[in-house]
C-alpha cells in the first residue's frame, strides 16, 4: 500500500511529508520511500503555534482559525510530496499544542491540532489521525510512538542499536540485538529532554525574531560552554526520572528558557553566543546521561535524525559526550533527517488499516498494546483505500 505520512513536530517550523510503499510482513515490512517534501510554516503561523504551545490565551475563534490554517498547510505539504495523488492512505500526526503525561493519579492527555475531515476532503483520501489517544486512554504516556516503527524500518544488528531524533525534543529508541540473550527484550524508548526547543527559542529572542534556528550551530560555536551549570541542570527531576516518560514545550518552553538564561547570566555567561553554546551542549548532555545511566545495555551505535542532525556543533557534542558509541546518520538507511517521523506515522497508518497494534507498552507504560489512530473518510460514495 502507498501511504503518505505527514509530521509537524514540537519545533512548529513546518510539515515534513513522505510517500512510502509498504508490503510483506507487518512487523518487518519491505518498504520504499518514493517521494519526500518539506513545507515551512509561514512566519505568522509558526509564531502563533509556538505561542499557543507556550499556553498563551487564545479565543475559540482564534483556535478554530489556527486549526484550519494547520490543516491547509498539511494538505499543501501532501500535494507537494504527492502531486500525482498516488497515495491510497494518509497518516497525519497534526500539530501538538499541549502534551500532559499522566501524573499524580491524573490521566494523561495530548492535543494535536488538526481538522481531519477537512484534510480528507482536501486530499480526497482516507486520513488516519489522533494516534496518541488510545495509548493515553490505556494509562500510557501517549509518546513516544515511533519506537516500534523504528525497529520495523531500521531492523536489528549484532548489538543494541539506538535511534535518536533531534527535533524540538530529543527522543530515543533502543532496539534489541538480532541474536543473543537480549534478542527477546522489548523495544525501549522515551523522551530525553530538549533538543532544539530551547535553542530555537533563544535564537528567536536574541535575533528579535529574525531567525528561527542556529544554522549549523555557527552562532553557538562562537560561545563558551558553562559546563558546571550543565552538570547542575542534569540533576533536575525530569532528567533523573526513569522511563516511561515524555515531555514537550509545556516543560521545556519559554519559561524554562528564561530561568536558564538567568542562571547563565549569574554564572558569567551573559553573551548570546555563550547561552547558545551552553544550551546546545546541554541538549547533547541529556542524551548522553540517559544512555549511560539506565539499566539497559549501552548501544553499539547511535543513528541520528531530525533537524538537529544538521547542527554540526550539536553532533560534535554528542560524539564528545557519548564516547564508545558509534554515531551514524539515519540517512545511511535511506531515511533522511526530516523523513523519520513522517515515515513512522505512514507506517502507523498502514498498521491501523491492518488492525496491528502500534504502541509499545514497555515504552509508554500503557496497560496493553492497541491499534492507534482514528480514520476520517472523504465525503462521497465508496470512499476508502483502493
Structure description:
It is a single chain. By secondary structure, this protein is of the alpha/beta class. The chain has 2 domains: about 1-145 and about 340-375, Nucleotidyltransferase, domain 5 (2-Layer Sandwich); about 145-335, ATPase, nucleotide binding domain (Nucleotidyltransferase, domain 5, 2-Layer Sandwich). It is built from 14 helices and 12 strands. The chain has helices at about 45-55, 60-80, 115-125, 135, 145-155, 195-205, 220, 225-235, 235-240, 255-265, 270-295, 310-320, 340-355, 360-365, and strands at about 1-10, 15-25, 30-40, 90-100, 110-115, 125-130, 160-165, 170-175, 190-195, 300-305, 325-330, 375. The strands form 2 sheets. Strands 1, 2, 3, 4, 5, 6 and 12 form a 7-stranded mixed beta sheet that branches. Strands 9-8-7-10-11 form a 5-stranded mixed beta sheet, sandwiched between helices. Helix 6 (about 195-205) runs antiparallel to helix 11 (about 270-295), helix 8 packs across helix 11 (about 270-295) and helix 11 (about 270-295) packs across helix 12 (about 310-320). The N and C termini lie close together (about 10 Å). The mean pLDDT is about 95.
